[in-house]
Amino acid sequence: MTPEDSVQQLARIVTADSQFTEDSVYAAMANANIPDREADLAYKFTQAAWGRMLLDGMGIKFADDYHCLDRNGDVVDSGKLSAEPHFFAATSLGKSYGSQAGFKRLASMSSDFHAVNQALHAGSKPENLVTAPLMLFLEAPTDAGMVKAQHFLKALLSRGESDTSRSRPSGQPYNPSLQRTEAADKCSWFQKLFGRGPGR
């Protein structure tokens, strides 16, 4: 099954039932004979892509890098979201599903959406926000894995995003951060939005 096929199946599932839950989506994908790991990647990258599409037009700057982690917080894959097959397919499909309630529900569950919403409620202006690279767990993290991932993300932010393509990870949006772009506003904060691993 190609990433396009799995993302298309996911899109059908979430737009057919606007009251879906994460567990119900995974169950439906399993019933459609989509392998667990493929279903997990389709769900997590589609959620991220649609979340960014819902926020598009606000002037927020989105980092193009993603990093996927195993349960221990070690980077196992990384790259550019614009070239990631599931993210690319979800972005293309999102143009057709954008007006549907299921699209908006999945998008509003994304970590980027929650982080931006929190920042706006704290008084930030969207045009002054830039997201950190997308951090994804491929499996349920250990406590030590969460700590290691947090340190990894802080290191990425401290050295700037020009180096982020050197590492390699993939799974559910883990712990996005936002930075304000104005020098006087430079600060980062973290949201604990822990994604579950593929086994549900």
Layout of secondary structure:
Layout: H1 3-16, H2 22-31, H3 36-55, E1 65-69, E2 75-80, H4 85-97, H5 101-108, H6 111-121, E3 129-131, E4 134-137, H7 143-159, E5 172-173, E6 177-180, E7 188-190
Parallel strand pairs: 1-4
Antiparallel strand pairs: 1-2, 3-6, 4-5, 6-7
Helix pairs in contact: 1-3, 1-4, 1-5, 2-3, 3-4, 3-5
Give a structural overview.
With 200 residues, the chain is an alpha+beta fold. It has one domain (3-190). 46% of the residues lie in helices and 14% in strands. It has 7 helices and 7 strands, in the order αααββαααββαβββ. The protein has helices at 3-16, 22-31, 36-55, 85-97, 101-108, 111-121, 143-159; strands spanning 65-69, 75-80, 129-131, 134-137, 172-173, 177-180, 188-190. The strands form 2 sheets. Strands 2-1-4-5 form a 4-stranded mixed sheet, with helices on one face. A 3-stranded antiparallel sheet has the order 3-6-7, covered by helices on one side. A hairpin with a 7-residue loop joins strand 6 and strand 7 (188-190). Helix 1 crosses helix 5 and helix 2 (22-31) packs across helix 3. The model is unreliable at 161-200 (pLDDT under 50).
Short description:
The chain is an alpha+beta fold and 200 residues long. The protein is built from seven helices and seven strands, in the order αααββαααββαβββ.
